[in-house]
Predict the 3D structure of the following.
Amino acid sequence: MKVILQTDVKGIGKRNQVLEVADGYARNFLLPRKLALPATAGGVKTVEKLAKDRSDRDDFLRAQAKENAAKLAAITVLLKARAGENGRLFGSITPQQIVEALKQQHHLVIDKRDLHVTESIRALGLHTTSVTLFAEIKATLQVEVASE
């Protein structure tokens, strides 16, 4: 029996996938639990349209992420913080501060969860962080910390 999965089913498949399963498995497990629907011609067309729309959206987001990666590689974000005589900061620079400065100085918006600071920024100077813009697209961002 052909079915369209409504949710991810471990060991079977992912959501909106059209599968051929045993009749008894579909009737006794998938359909009563509303994990799948019988595959009709209209349902299969809908699933194909959803897959095409998702693919188009991913292509657009991937292109936008590549463009943003090029912009991020060419800029440096300047942050000012209080520091002691030896160049150590009173506290540290957080990803939220970096994201806000990036938005303010360069009008680029990224999510703070996508910013990966390998080690805490606790000193004056130039630091490098990485940003995940899309699944496989990563960029580096230069952060310069200056004394107030």
Observations:
- The CA atoms of residues 7 and 15 lie 4 Å apart.
- The chain has two domains: 2-59, 63-147.
- Strands lie at 2-5, 18-20, 36-38, 76-81, 88-93, 115-116, 121-123, 125-132, 138-147.
- The longest strand covers residues 138-147.
